[in-house]
Every structure is written in C-alpha cells, then in structure tokens.
User: What shape does this take?
Amino acid sequence: MAAYEALYRKWRPQTFDDIVAQPHITRTLKNQIMREKTAHAYLFVGSRGTGKTTCARIFAKAVNCLHPKDGNPCLECENCRDAEKGALTDIIEIDGASNNGVGEVRSLRDNAAYMPVRCKYKVYVIDEAHMITTEAFNALLKMIEEPPPYVKFVLATTEIHKVPATILSRCQRFDFRRILPEDIAARIQYIASHESFTVSDAAAHRIAMLSDGGLRDALSLLDQCAAVSDTIESETVEEAVGVAGTESVYSVLHAVAARDAAAALSVIDKLYRQSKDMTRFADEISQQLRNVMLLKSAPDAPELISAMPQELDALKSLSEEYTTGGVLNALNAVRQCCDRMTRAGNRRMELEMTLIRLCADLQTQTPTAQAGGDTAVLTDRIARLEAQLSELVRNGVPANFRAGAAQTAHRPEPKIPARELQVEGKPDTSQSTPVRNWAEVLERFHTLNPAVSGLLQDSEAYALEDKQILLLIVRNRLFKQLFTRRDAAALEQAALQVLGRQYSIRFKTVEPQGEQQSPVDTLMQRAQEMQVPVGTREDKK
Assistant: This one.
C-alpha cells in the first residue's frame, strides 16, 4: 500500500501556468526562458506558502528541459522526470537554515566550479536564504556576482531585511504577493473536485481566510478537514481547526457595543471549555472589527470586506452599533491584545482584560447617544454647553459663582487699547456705586495675571450700572506705561467671574497721597535727568 501524500505536496504546481496568483513573476520567467536571456542569480521574496520554492524548482526544470513548451518544462523528458524525483544531480537544493556557515558556503563554491553532469545548467536553489550568516554571504558574494556561465542561483527568503544589500544588488528580485482569499478558495474547489471529498463555498472561504494568504497553509487545513468528514462545511472547519464560529464573534462584538462585560466573558468561558484557541479567536474578532471599520468608512465599497455575501447584513447591523471612533479604538485594543498573547502565559486572561476595558471605557453607542467618540458629536456637545452658559450669564450669575463653567464663557475681545480708556479731568463718582467686593476682584485678577496685579494696589472701583461700566481710581504712576490691553481684558474677566456681570473698564490715575516716591520712579527720574532713553516694552511696540 502506497504511503499517503499530503495534499500540498500532491498538488504542488509542476509548471508556471499552475502557480496561483503570481502572473507578474511567471510571465517574466517564461519570457526569459523562451528568449534564452535568463539571469545568473534570482532572489524570490514573499510570505510563507506563496510559491517561492515551487517557482524555483520549476525554473530549474525549465532551463534544463530538453523540450520546453512556451517557457514551461515539458514534464516528459528524462531531465524533467529525474528532477521531479529528486534524482537530477545538477539541481541542488540547499537549506539555508542548516547550511549557513562559512564552511558549507566554501564547499558550495568549490563544487560550483565543476561542469554539470547531464544538464545545460547547474542550478542552486537556496531556501531560507536569510538564515545564512554575514560571513558566509561574504564568502559567496564573488561567486554570485560572477558565476561560471553554466551556474545559476535562486535564493528564496521570507525576511528580505536580513539579506545583505551586496547580495540584493547582484540578484534579480521578484516579490511574491499574498494570495487573495477568492483565489485560494477557487484552488481548494479545484482540488476537491479531483479528490474523494466535497467542500462548500462557505467552508472554502473560511479556510482561505484562516490561511492568511498562504496556499500551502490552506491545503494543510483542507487536509485536516478532510480527515474529519468527506463533506466539508463551515462547521467541519471550525471543529477540525479549533476555531470559534462567526456567531461567537458577533456575540462578543454585540456585547462590547452594549458595554455588557458579563455577556462577553460568558462567550469566552464557553469557548475556553471547548478548548478553542484564544489567540485565533482574538484574531477573528479583529478581522470582523476591520469589516465594521470598512463599512463605516466606505459603505459603498462592499468588495473591500472579507466576508461571505450572506454575512453582509449581519455586519451592517453590527456596524450601526459602533461609531467610527469606537470601532477604531476597539480594533486597536484587540490588535494589541493579539501581540501580547503571543508571549503571555495566560492568553484567556489577556483577552478577558481587553474586553473588560472595552466594555468599561469605550463609548460605542450609536452616534446619537455617543458622548465622546466622534469629533462632530463632541463639537455639538460643546456648542450646547456654551449656549447654556451664555443664557446663564444673560440672566445673571450669582455673586459666589467661581471659575468653572463661567470661565469658559465666550466674551468679546476689548476693542480699544488700555491707554485710550482714561477718564479726563476729575472722576465723577456721584452717579456710581462703590464696588464693595473689589478686593475679591483684585484677588481673582492676581490669579489670572499676577505680573501686573500690583499696579492696582490701593485702587478703588465704582460701578455705573446703567452703562455697565467700572470706573477705576488708580494710584500708581507706572500704571499708564505698564497696563496693556490684554491686562484690561483679564481684569474684565475677573470682574465677570466675581460680580457676575460684564463690565467695560474705565480708569483714572491720581497721585498717591502722603507716599514717598517709589525706587522705580526715582530710577526713571534720574535716568531722564541724565538723558538716558527710558521706556517700557509697550512703548517699543
């Protein structure tokens, strides 16, 4: 009885035309082979399961095929048959992970000097090339740059950043793309049609999504599912692979939207008892959150969503429970959780903590109920608060009203510089009322503008209620030079906070009575006598 052969080995492509979803590479290589203009060194780059090593093997067979067909190997000649069996000595496959030292590279370089035994070219296929050490790459450098005319190199790697730039510059680089889910699903259906089992479209799509762009991973999952049942459905995939169904994912996301931590945790507990992989479940949550994000951002582009058509209505219903800001916050939290779970001792606990944080802190309600998610909602809320505060100011604010909401009230900027607000002649206080809590206003002004608050020491204030004017009597000679428009605005703000009304400031400076000249005034007077220019910062503007 023949030994069982895994599906990914049994259905490995034999020609360039069989390679899935890499036409930009296969077309170029076929043209080079037909025109006999192949390079001496190639570098195949891409994620796992995208066809790098398979393409290298096909290339090695094609350049040595006795009867190539449109750049493809014929698969019938002696060289093709021996190459498929691994019996062709002129095609050498090397594992870069286990042959990464200088000694192995020197041996390769010495053997490359010999002519091929049967074929036209001696082809070296070096897999996992990024595992080769820097010293070994340096030993191989000259051979890759100028090999004998009968030697070709094909290097394959998943981590291009580890390959030295000196090697990159000497190779033709081909980047293998991740295979789209629909291409993987089509390949699965093609293989199933030639095997003894059937696969539903939903199951093929589920396997394609779980494979993350790698066809080899998809065929391994298909092999695993075929061992469970000859009729593969979505439930078969979930049972064989150990992943949760989409219903569990939707239940968790609905619970997060409703901020129901107990419901979300109960789903996690149920899946944990069924031995489901918590890391994979967290990744499924992030995939559905991505779909919700795309529905919120591009509702007219359903082709961007990675889901079956019958799942679209459920996703649209779910997206209505989230705002754009909410789903971005949730997606970011879950992706960070996935990163932590790769190195966490208790992966279930990591996922539970993430869901609890989302239910406790994330505002995920609909936009009409959202309090802090979207910018538009926040702006609308601020506008409503400002309107309420303005109404409160117009109707009169109690005298004990302090900094808080009133401090954020909108007030117009002073329209006249402070020096133009002076009162000429003797101040008329006959029709005004003294401000009894003026000391409290000065105290508040000191907190807003301590730099010039000392200029108002010993000042008096009178309120002209009918004109909403505050008349200040100031006894400081430097007041005119140092008190600016911005200071006047701060003083009006302090009066609003303490007195509860909006006043315009007018002032009159008078000579201090019974006081000696201040040291500053004395210094300025002496400077003027010595004809030294003296002024303030406001004078220089």
